[in-house]
Amino acid sequence: MPSAAFPTALRELRARIPGPWRTPLMTLVAAWLVLLVGFASDWGAMARQWWDISTYNHMLLIPPVEVWLVWQRRSQLARLAPAAWWPGLVLVAGAAFVWLLGGVSGLDLARQAGVVALLGACVPLLLGPRVTMALCFPLFYLVFMVPFGEELVKPLQMVTAEITIALTRASGIPAVIEGVFIDTPAGLFKVAEACSGVKFLIAMVAFGILAANVCFVRWGRRLVLLGACVVVPILANGLRAWGTIYAAQQVGIEVAAGFDHIVYGWIFFAVVLGLVIAGAWRFFDRPLEAPMVDLEELARSPVLAKLEAIGRGRSLMAVLALCGLLMGVKAWAWSGDQLAAPLPAQIALPEVPGWHRVDYTPEVWWEPRAQGADHRLLGRYADGKGGTVDVFIALYSGQGEGREAGGFGQGAVMPDSPWAWSEPAAAPQGGHGERLVAHGQLERLAMTWYRNGDLLSGSNARLKLAVIEDQLVLRAQPTLTLILSAEEGEGDRARQRIGHFLEATGDLSLWMDAVAGVR
């Protein structure tokens, strides 16, 4: 009967596990279950990104690759004696702190990196340093479970655009470039986020690191392969974009774009990956029979012997300490997320000397996104000389999940709107500038500043650090986002108009504090 067969199967499985491994392995599995359940929301968010976002689809293969990497080392691992190791709690605490930083700042990347690091940190805690060294590469490779790379999109857009315009002109096609927009006789092309090549690059780096470990022994050859896995996809992506523009001159934009999506999605990556493998094949230097773990080197390592001697412990106590640590960081993150600074019941756009309020009537509607803000203001000021400046203000009582001033999709560039990011732009007083384009012809300059406590900056990273500091010490402070924007083509240039507006406001820090009602 099935009910009787299940215990029998478990006994058979247990009998196949080497004796010294049975209790530590069961303890490790129990600890991992605690992590998966306790941080289910983070694991769920990662899984959705793996499945729903094409940039991360390759990460669905990382768990089976991890199983295969451990399976490669099974015979060497069976000859080791795992044991709980108390200093591993330091690594667990470090991973938990990374998760806490993400939890209190609303930075999903840090939260997800933290839960993946916790998974790996359990290995030295419950199996000891010698087993950890035997599993060094599989543990390192866990990093490719973390959905990262969005921060590379805009730089890669600019690099792809530069490669594309160089090839376009070299092929005899007259073209003009403005940021990520390339104007040709066949029409206007945009190197969009999806065309940046970031998913291609991340997948190639993941493959390259795996191949470097499995197929090579010499570090020089490993580094050459990794270099190729970075350079080749960037150059190949520029070549692909040029190919689309070149084909469009012959058959039209719609036919060329449709063909590009099919080729890039199904054929191009496979061809380039195949070329890299073919180029590296003859240099593979790891013998087929060579073990993945050098047990003799592990056995004679004096460092590992000293580490083992200073921290042996009991598995049950290690798991209890792990649970206590996780409960502590969870409670800390929850307390920080509940922080809310007092705000005025309402705020208003102030008077600005030399400027007056006019109706907000942009040629193409522009309204920055500020999800979770307690107050939002959007208005237009005129200088009496035919020029205007648009002002957007968002005031937050606190920062956290669903209310992140610098979060993904927040700010001047509105997703799913006619406005598209074109290129970065300089901004005064540490602000963050960017140029936007609508319908390929209407340009807008936007400059962003964040105000939190004494911080005035356009840097999202600096804002995150300030918010982390506030929440770690459980200090409630409001956050204000200010975006000044102007359309090109009316009166003075947009940069000049924004500069005159800033001069009229005086000290920008004091002006923003006055708007927020905190001074």
From TrEMBL:
Residues 324-505 form the Methanolan biosynthesis EpsI domain. Its EC number is 3.4.22.-. It is found in: Cell membrane. It is a multi-pass membrane protein. The keyword Cell wall biogenesis/degradation does not apply. It comes from the Bacteria. The chain crosses the membrane at residues 21-41, 83-102, 114-144, 197-216, 223-243, 263-284, 316-334. One of its GO terms (molecular function) is hydrolase activity. InterPro entries: EpsH-like, Exo/Archaeosortase_dom, Exosortase, Exosortase-1, Methanolan_biosynth_EpsI. Keywords: Cell membrane, Hydrolase, Membrane, Protease, Transmembrane, Transmembrane helix. This is Exosortase A. It comes from Novosphingobium decolorationis.
